[in-house]
Automatic annotation (TrEMBL), chain A:
First-level EC class: translocase
Record carries keyword Ion transport: no
GO molecular function terms listed in the Swiss-Prot or TrEMBL record: heme binding; metal ion binding; quinol-cytochrome-c reductase activity
Region (Disordered): 139-158
Annotated localization: Mitochondrion inner membrane
Species this protein is from: Coniochaeta pulveracea
Name listed for the protein in its UniProt record: quinol--cytochrome-c reductase
BP GO terms, sorted: mitochondrial electron transport, ubiquinol to cytochrome c
GO cellular component: mitochondrial inner membrane
Cofactor list: heme c
Residue positions binding heme c: C110, C113, H114, M234
Reactions catalysed, as given in the entry: a quinol + 2 Fe(III)-[cytochrome c](out) = a quinone + 2 Fe(II)-[cytochrome c](out) + 2 H(+)(out)
Note describing how the cofactor binds: Binds 1 heme c group covalently per subunit.
UniProt KW keywords: Electron transport, Heme, Iron, Membrane, Metal-binding, Mitochondrion, Mitochondrion inner membrane, Respiratory chain, Translocase, Transmembrane, Transmembrane helix, Transport
From TrEMBL, chain B:
Quaternary assembly: Component of the ubiquinol-cytochrome c oxidoreductase (cytochrome b-c1 complex, complex III, CIII), a multisubunit enzyme composed of 3 respiratory subunits cytochrome b, cytochrome c1 and Rieske protein, 2 core protein subunits, and additional low-molecular weight protein subunits.
Name this polypeptide is given: Complex III subunit 9
Organism: Coniochaeta pulveracea
Location of the protein in the cell: Mitochondrion inner membrane
Gene3D superfamilies, A to Z: Cytochrome b-c1 complex subunit 9
Length: 323, 64
């Protein structure tokens, strides 16, 4: 008997969920009769609606809540450490001595595989090299001439207006020479990678002595946690005292990595020094103008802000009443 | 006030005088401001710019 009534009550609950309006009157009538006015049905209804609410929230969170990652953390690569680059401060230029060292590292190490095709020799004049040095360096390379009267293209020594030569004739040659991997052009590399300078520095100095246990390293690849996918075709190239710096700085691995990173930042943003200097001027002028604007506003508003409106009610004698 | 009156009569009363004043002060201010800010800039970046290290390499080139 009790089981039947309990069953009926649950049926009523579901019916009530379907059309509540009718059920309310029913329930009111039954409640007044007194016999089945148990709080059990109310409890069940509350529990059911709570379950539905929690369930729908959970379903919604399952659909839209968690961030969807297209790649695993290993495929993303380790996030590069943030380093306090002096040249990235608001009002600091590149350290041009470091640029000179970095260019030396590029020339002696990176240039074996990586091109720097968007940088002409003239860009070095007055930033990294003297005119004579830059000219001498350009003349070490041969470039195609314009066709002569017989239509032959000859070779001529480089000029300041020429761009740095690439180590390979084309991308296919570069791939062929590097086991199928293409060494990317480094001209804009600082702008082209997440983390910029931090990433390049971390990558250059982040090769472990041997890959950690369990890491999958493909054939011909090297393990570097900072490289997306961790398998990088470039092996570690910077070792202590690899380069002989002309200014006597000790060429530790991190020193070379720092210098070449700053140099690559210069290659990507050669206008940075001038840009920041103009920015300083603009900021100073605009802050003066802003202060003046604020002062003028306060000056003009002073009487509005400090005035006091008083209402003097007219005296009875002066009021003209309608007849 | 008398001096202000002279300034007004001399620079602002006639339109061409006003125009000349505006142009001249603009040029003068620009030069003054640029020079000052460049000095400030060079002071902030002492030893970092090419002109600070240029001397070492120019001398080396002269020896050859």
């Amino acid at each position: 008997m009790f089981a039947r009534s309990g069953l009926r009550s649950t049926q009523r609950v579901f019916a009530g969920a379907r059309n509540g309006a009718i059920n309310v009157t029913k329930r009111a009538a039954s409640t007044s009769s007194g016999a089945e006015a148990s709080p059990v049905r109310l409890n069940i209804a509350a529990a059911a609606s709570t379950a539905v609410a929690i369930g729908s929230i959970a379903w919604y969170y399952h659909l839209y809540g968690p961030t969807a990652h297209a790649m695993t953390p290993a495929e993303e690569g380790l996030h590069a450490t943030k380093y306090p680059w002096v040249h990235q401060q608001w009002f600091k230029t590149f350290d041009h001595q470091a640029l000179r060292r970095g260019f030396q590292v590029y020339r002696e190490v990176c240039a074996a595989c990586h091109s720097l095709q968007r940088v002409p020799y003239r860009a070095f004049v007055g930033t990294i090299l003297t005119v004579d040095e830059a000219k001498a360096m350009a003349e070490e390379n041969e470039y195609d001439t314009e066709p002569n009267d017989q239509g032959e293209i000859e070779k001529r020594p480089g000029k300041l207006s020429d761009y740095l030569p690439a180590p390979y004739k084309n991308d296919e040659a570069a791939r062929f020479a590097n086991n199928g991997a293409l060494p990317p052009d480094l001209s804009l590399m600082v702008k082209a990678r997440h983390g910029g300078c931090d990433y390049i520095f971390s990558l250059l100095t982040g090769y472990p002595d041997e890959p950690p246990a369990g890491a999958q390293v493909g054939a011909g690849l090297n393990f570097n946690p900072y490289f997306p996918g961790t398998g990088i075709a470039m092996a570690r190239v910077l070792y202590d005292d690899l380069v002989d710096y002309e200014d006597g700085t000790r060429a530790s691995t991190s020193q070379m990595a720092k210098d070449v990173t700053e140099f690559l930042n210069w290659a990507a943003e050669p206008e940075m020094d001038d840009r920041k200097r103009t920015g300083l001027k603009v900021l100073v002028v605009t802050s003066i103008l802003f202060a003046a604007t604020v002062w003028v506003k306060r000056y003009k508003w002073a009487y509005l802000k400090s005035r006091k409106i008083a209402y003097a009610p007219p005296k009875d004698a002066n009021v003209q009443h309608r007849q | 006030m008398a001096q202000l009156g002279t300034v007004y009569n001399l620079f602002f009363r006639r339109n061409y005088a006003m125009l000349a004043t505006v142009f001249t002060t603009a040029f003068a201010w620009e030069m003054l401001y640029d020079n000052t800010m460049n000095k400030v800039w060079d002071n902030i970046n002492k030893g970092r710019q090419w002109k600070d290290i240029r001397q070492k390499y120019i001398q080396g080139a002269d020896d050859e």
